[in-house]
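Lecture notes, continued. The same structure-token format from the folding unit now serves as the input rather than the output. Read the line below as a description of shape only.
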């Protein structure tokens, strides 16, 4: 199970809240669902802020092994 820092959790929580209110804006419809897109946006913002988050694409690359 992934361990994320507190800042990452806060960013994801904010993105999910925006999704529920209908104010979340995503540039590309790459994810399967709006919830997954909100999580991806939150984790991306946390990475930019320097939070403790695993590398982007880590889960997809580990599944291929």
């Amino acid at each position: 199970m992934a361990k994320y820092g507190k800042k990452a959790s806060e960013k994801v929580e904010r993105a999910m809240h925006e999704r529920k209110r209908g104010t979340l804006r995503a540039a590309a419809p790459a994810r399967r669902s709006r919830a997954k897109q909100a999580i991806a946006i939150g984790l991306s913002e946390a990475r930019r802020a320097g939070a403790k988050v695993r590398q982007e694409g880590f889960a997809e690359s580990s599944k291929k092994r």
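Point for the exam: The mean pLDDT is 76.
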